[in-house]
TrEMBL record:
Organism listed in the record: Polarella glacialis (Dinoflagellate)
Name this protein carries in UniProt: Major facilitator superfamily (MFS) profile domain-containing protein
PROSITE patterns noted in UniProt: MFS
Residues covered by the Major facilitator superfamily (MFS) profile domain: 291-529
UniProt region (Disordered), positions on chain: 506-529
Transmembrane segments: 117-134, 154-177, 212-234, 240-259, 312-334, 354-370, 377-399, 405-430, 442-461, 476-499
Length: 529
């Protein structure tokens, strides 16, 4: 029987009635009752990140410069008027998306490559941040990682505001610098949230799976709302984003105050006081540099040892990394794909909320799907589903008359639902393979492996497969390549599931039919200050 946490009527979180008063004996309702503060923070950070996501891409495009095209061969983004190439008005769907460059193909290709290179460089430095975050959250707690993220938001938005008044060289310098800071400080957010869920649901594997599903639903719901909220910003077709980044700087300050001091939303530490590290010391409240560096290198070694001692886990994390690169590689090009089909930039951005609605549906269904087919079966089915969806989208290259339908059906609907189930089943698979005190190292190791694989193959999609001028099969190459990767990862998973050496450590906790422990979960609102 699924056990849920009791609630204290005098608990400071009483104001979070939307979570704390949810009814139901299990599933997502039980997870929301146990995890109100974790889910509230997850909703906010996801909303804030994605609200500024599409405007950020448009902001990058405004900084792209190029010479004015020469007649009579005016490039897309300009048209011939009285023997001269004249840029289209910024409210015309054919606008080049930059007031400093009238060549739309050049703007799209340059932005895709700049974003790809920016992400590659930031991921390299973020790799070290993940090491620090994973080991720090297992030693000193989960909360400091989230507070560091809130603090970085203030500084990053202030930098972006200042860049609007800089020269082109200063613009690109800030572009790369702010990305380094943001990636480094956000590296610990997802591992910290996953570790908090593992902390608060220890001893109850079914509730833990429901907690990961609730986290997925909450984050995808925030994505949808954020993208819709950003639609009016894109509709303005701004040539300067100073007014956008300035107010967001103030909002970042307010968010820090809310999650630091507000009685109903103040973050609490979830790392239990009875959890001890390898050195036998209890987790500490504060962050001490001297004590941190004392255990840092030994913890890095233990993180790798944690993975390498489990043959299934080691290969599964690599499998997951390649899956993520194939997924992100194509999806990050979706907006450029739609812009080339003639979509106005605000309308093209609607693919993102539609995608996240599909992700939210997949995450909502994942709790029941995992219970019926097991975490591994759900993961394998999701890989096949995504392969079908992305291949359909790739067919839009040789069949341009159906490209729009194939994109929305294949990538957004089929691929999105499959990915929603995939993410939840992934967390359910890996979280039960390590002890509670190693959850932070585990989820940080996921990002480490993803980063290493991304450094190796992540640039294939924006730099090699994508070509704004391509036609035919070449135009659908990014999606077809992703579909091939999904099929290969499915075959790899099938081999892993039948190898005896990869199943020896699964144990009772990972059994599809196993019962969860009767040990009650602890609500995050019941944790002490």
């Amino acid at each position: 029987m699924l056990s849920v946490a009791r609630h204290d009527d005098d608990a400071p979180h009483k104001g979070i009635s939307g979570f704390g008063r949810l009814k139901g004996s299990g599933g997502l309702a039980a997870a929301c009752r146990v995890l109100p503060r974790v889910l509230l923070f997850a909703f906010w950070q996801q909303f804030y990140a994605y609200f500024s996501g599409d405007p950020f891409n448009s902001y990058v495009m405004t900084g792209i410069t190029c010479p004015m095209p020469l007649p009579p061969n005016c490039s897309e983004g300009s048209h011939l008027v009285a023997g001269e190439c004249v840029p289209w008005d910024r409210f015309n769907p054919s606008w080049s998306l930059s007031a400093k460059c009238a060549d739309k193909d050049y703007v799209l290709e340059t932005t895709a490559r700049v974003n790809g290179l920016n992400g590659w460089i930031a991921a390299f430095f973020g790799l070290f941040a993940v090491f620090i975050a994973g080991n720090a959250m297992d030693t000193f707690g989960r909360k400091p990682m989230l507070m560091a993220f809130l603090s970085s938001n203030v500084f990053v938005k202030a930098l972006l505001f200042a860049s609007c008044f800089m020269s082109e060289s200063g613009f690109f310098a800030v572009l790369f610098l702010q990305n380094l800071i943001e990636v480094a400080c956000s590296a610990g957010v997802e591992p910290a949230l996953n570790s908090m869920i593992a902390d608060l649901t220890r001893g109850n594997e079914k509730l833990r799976s429901d907690g990961f599903a609730a986290l997925g639903v909450m984050m995808h719901a925030a994505d949808v709302i954020a993208f819709i909220a950003g639609y009016p910003v894109l509709k303005l077709h701004l040539t300067s984003y100073a007014w956008f980044w300035g107010p967001l700087t103030l909002v970042s300050l307010l968010a820090y105050a809310v999650f630091s001091f507000s009685p109903c939303s103040k973050l609490r530490e979830t790392l239990h006081r009875d959890v001890v590290g390898d050195n036998g010391n209890e987790a500490e409240d504060g962050f001490s540099c001297s004590s941190f560096f004392k255990v840092f290198f030994s913890e890095i070694a233990s993180g790798f040892r944690l993975i390498c001692l489990d043959p299934f886990l080691a290969q599964f994390l690599i499998l997951w990394a390649f899956t993520g690169q194939a997924l992100g590689g194509s999806w990050n090009l979706a907006q450029f794909f739609l812009l080339k089909m003639g979509y106005e930039q605000a309308n093209a951005s609607m693919a993102r909320p539609a995608w996240h609605l599909a992700l939210m549906l997949g995450a909502a269904l994942s709790s029941r799907i995992v219970r019926c087919f097991g975490a591994r079966g759900s993961f394998a089915g999701s890989l096949l589903t995504m392969a079908v969806g992305f291949f359909l989208c790739g067919l839009g290259g040789p069949f341009p008359e159906h490209a729009e339908l194939l994109f929305w059906l294949g990538t957004v609907v089929i691929g999105g639902i499959g990915n929603g189930v995939l993410a939840t089943s992934f967390s359910a698979i890996i979280s039960v393979r390590v002890s509670e005190q190693d959850q932070g190292k585990l989820f940080s190791s996921v990002i480490v492996v993803n980063t290493i694989v991304g450094l190796a193959v992540g640039q294939l999609w924006p730099q090699l497969f994508f070509d704004a001028k391509a036609v035919g099969w070449r135009k659908g190459a990014p999606w077809i390549a992703s579909a091939v990767v999904f099929i290969l990862m499915f075959m790899w998973l099938c081999v892993l599931c039948v190898l005896p050496c990869c199943n020896a450590k699964a144990g009772k906790a990972e059994s599809d039919d196993g019962e969860s422990s009767d040990e009650p979960a602890t609500s995050d609102s019941e944790m002490s200050e």
